[in-house]
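call fold(seq) -> C-alpha cells
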Amino acid sequence: MQKKRFKIFFGTIAVLFFVILCKLFYIQMIEGGKFSGISNNKRIRTVGIDTLRGTIYDRNGLVLAVDKHSFELTVMYKKLFNAYSCFNQNILPEVSEGRKQGKYHNLCSGCHIDKVMWVEKVAELLDIPYTDIFDKATKIVKKVENIKQAVERKNKRKIRIREETIPHSIASHIPWEKVAKFEVEMLNLPGIQIETNPVRWYPQGDMSSHVIGYVGKLGNGEIQNYNFKKRWFDNLKKSGESESEFFTQKAISMDALIGKSGIEKTYNSSLMGIPGERFEEVTLDTMRVDKLILERPSIPGNNIFLTIDSRIQGIAEKALGNKKGSVIVMDPWNGEVIAIASFPRYNLNTLNADYTALSKNPLKPFLNRPIQSVLPPGSTFKIVTAIAALEENKIDENTHFSCYGSLKVGNIRFRCLTKYGHGLLNVEEAMQYSCNVFFFETAKILGGKLLEKWAKNFGLGNTTDIDLAYEKKGNIPKSRSFSQTINLSIGQGAMLVTPIQMARMIATIANGGWHTKPHILRKISDYKGNTLASNKYELTEKIDISEKNMNIIQHSLRKVVTSGTARKVGLKELHVAGKTGTTQTARENENHAWFVGYAPFEKPKYCFVVVVEHTEGHGAEIAGPIVKKLLIQIGI
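ret:
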C-alpha cells in the first residue's frame, strides 16, 4: 500500500516536470522570436518616489516649515547627454527669422535632429531661451560623469551607474498653464515628462530663519564622502545597519534635500523620511509607461515641534528692528528657548535667488549671532566677578572700596565710568552703579585663577550644546598679570562669550543657582501624530552658591533697574532685574551694548539677553529700550 502511494506521488511530480519542460520548449523554441521582440522593445525601470520631509512647528502648532508639491519637467539622461555633446562640440543652432527678439532659434535639422530638436520645443513651451536648457543639460551631465568616474575608480572597471538610466529635472515650479500645454504635446516628446516633487516652503518668510535653517542638495564632495553620508543619514532607517545604508544610497541617488543649517540640519535624519520606488514597464522607442509592476510607497518624515513661541519671536525680531545684534528669551527653569532673534536675517523662500547678494553683504546675514557672535561681555560679567569674590570669601556684604574715578596699577591707569568716581561702595552699590574701580579692587584680591574658575562654573567660554549647528565657544583666557586680571574682571580684554552663554548665566541667577541647558526641540512625532520623543529637561545640577550670596546678587540686579544704571529705561514697573554692559571695540566710538536680566523679579518667568553690536550708544541707552518694548508686548 505504501509503495503504491510513492509511485503515485513520483508519477505526479514527473508529469508536472514534463509539462513545465514542454512549456519552456514552446516559449523558447517556437515563440522565442515573439518574446525576443518584446524584450527588445520593453524594459523594466525603477523610478524613485520622493518622500515628504517632516513639518516643523512652533510650540503652539504654527507651521514654520512644510513640504508642498511642485511640478517639474524631467528628461531622460540619454537625451540630455546627446544635447550636451552637440553643445560641447559647438554644433549650435542658427538664429531663426521671425521669432520674438531672437529669443527662440531653429536647431540644426540637417544632422543631430533626433538629438537636439526636442530642446527647441521644450524651450518654446517653457517660454525660455533654448540656451538655458543646454546650460542645465551641461550641469547635469558633468555631475553624473563625476559620480560615474568616482564609482569606476573605486571598482576599477567600467560601470553604468543608475544616474545614467533615470530622468533628471531641467525645470521646476512650472505653473499650471504650462503643465497643460506639455500634457497636450507629451506624445511628441518621448523621454520627457511632467512630475510632481516636494518643495520646502516657509510660511513665515524671514521669521526665525536662523533657527529653522534651510535645505539643499548634496554637493559632489559630500556625495563621495562616506563619513558625511553616514553622519547625515544615520537613523534614517533604524531596523538595521544594512537597511540604513540602502536608504542612504537611495536618498542620495534621488537628489534628496538635506538640512544645511539650523533645525533642518540638526534633526535632518528625523525630518527626511524614507523614499519609495516604483517598478515600471516602458516602451523603449517612446519611453512611455505601459504598466506599473510594483510600487513601494514612501514614508513621510517625522514632525518637529520647537520651544519657540512665534508670537514672542515676532515681538523680539520687531523690537530688535534693523539693529545688528541678538535677542534671546528663555525659560530659566527648564532652558526652553522661547525666542532667539538675529539681525540681519534672510527670507528662506527666496534664499536661492538672494544667495549671491547675501553672501557678499558685509553685515553677514548668514551669521546666527545668538550662538556665533563672540563678544566681550563687558559689565554684565561683573555678576560673575561678584559671586566669585563672595563665595571665595574675598569680600562680603560689608566690604567697601573707595572709587575716585580711576585705579593705577603699575604704569597703567584703569578708569571708572565717571570722571570723579562713586565714593565709598559695597558690592550691591557697585553693581547698582556699575563701578569699575570696586571690581578692580576685588580682582586684585581675587586673582585670575579664581576668576577663570567661576567663569567656567557658569559655562562661559564653552558651548551650551544648544541644538543648533555651528555654535561658537568663545574664550575665557588665563590671566598672566594683574593688569589682565583687572581687565577681565569687568568683561573686557581677551574674554569672549556668546549671547546664548550669557542667557544660560543669567538663567542660573534667576532660578537660584541651577544649571540649565538651552534647547529648542520640544518633541518629535511621526506623520501619524504619535509622539516619538519628548524633551522634558529638569534642573538636576546646582552650582555651589550660598543662598545668602545669591540674594545679595539678585537684589543688586533689581537695584540696577530701580535706581542704578538702567533707572531711566522704565523697567521698574515691569519688575525687572538685570545688568547693563558696554564693551569697547577696535573701532573708535563703536561699542557692543548689552542688557541681561529676568522678570518678574519675585518669581522669574523669563530671562533675556539683548545685545546690539557696533553701536555708538551704551547698554542702557541702546539695549534698554529694546528690553522694554519686548517685555511690554510679551505681557510681563
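The domain at 51-301 is CATH 3.90.1310.10 (Penicillin-binding protein 2a (Domain 2)).
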